[in-house]
Structure prediction request, 312 residues.
Amino acid sequence: MRLKTAAPKKSRSMAKKEVLKKKDIYTKDWIIAKSVPIIARYEAGILTIRGLHYQLVAIGMLNTMRHYKRVVNAMIIARRAGVVAYSSFSDHDRDMLGYTDSSATDVDAKISQAKGQLRAWMNTYSKNRWENQPWYPEVFIEKKALQGVFQSPCSSADVALGACKGYPSLTFLYDASKRFISARNEGKKCVIIYFGDYDPSGEDIPRSIEENMLEFGCKDILIHRVALNEKQVIEWDLPYAPVKEGDSRSANWKGLGQVELDAVEPTKLQGLCRDAIGKFFDQDLYDELKDREEEEGETYRKQLRYFVDNNL
Prediction:
């Protein structure tokens, strides 16, 4: 009589993986169905794929690399199927430079364009928004992928926006130092408004920026770190993952875990950016500037009309 041998016991980790696999409802169809209304809330080019991933995590999806890859693949399928527009997502890491224009030139269209440009030059006069402000600000963000999120609040406030792409290069910082030194020579106080990940590198980058700027002769510059910090991570209940093993700074870091800036809802980031810029902006001084702008505008238009009538 042959005795039945017991099947080998499975480890707890293997059993847990099997349970998760069986219970995992976050399929391609689930991801697409949940993503469509999320994408519809944003203007084209504001949302990133990673940002979408974190919004799906907020409604229950698991925060793993496997699920992030599912989101990527699901959005490829959805865009090719016409369910999601190709313009929905931004990809500033792969921007093109310049423009190749091969369209036929039409002289009438050119004349009309030139007239419009002349009209614009004749009737548009504006003072520089920050010229009488005590502060000279620029916004630095850790990730270029989020440039589309920050572009709107920075553009509306006439503030420069720079993507560090992790630790910024010396070339990037040297160019920045020349702008800040020029502003300081005009009597301005200088500030870098910084947004980065909540992780060892994200918290250390501002220190690196300050040290390198000092080396380039850019003294007394304020690094104003807006996000992310531990308090925000807790209050906003942001999902976090273990710190990257390759980050040499992780050994001495006492944080909760790695949280990407992408995990914050885009409109909240835009609001944080607007508020941070506003802290360094004096509205009363700007109102005075607008009064001068109106007075000088009359002189500007009068002189241009005289030039056009008598010199062209």
In short: The radius of gyration is 26 Å. The CA atoms of residues 18 and 163 lie 41 Å apart. DSSP finds eleven helices and four strands in the chain.
